[in-house]
Amino acid sequence: MDEVPDPAEPGPYEAVVESLWSGICGTDVKEFTGHGGSVSRAPHPLTGAGLPLVLGHEFSARVVAVGANVEGVAVGEEVAIMPLQHCGQCLACHQGQHTHCVVKAWTGLSSPWGGFGERALVQSYQLTPLEGISAVAGAVIEPAAVALHAALRAGIGPGDTVFVAGAGAIGALTVMVAKALGASAVHVFEINPERAALVQSLGAAIVPESARDDIAAYLRERTGGHGVHVAMDCAGKPSAHEACVASVRVGGTVGVPAVHPGPTTVDVRRITRDDLTLVGSVGYSRESWEKTVLMVRAGVLPIERIVTSRIGLDEIVDKGFQALAKPGDELKILVQVNQ
Question: Which residue windows are transmembrane per the record (predicted)?
Answer without folding.
Answer: none
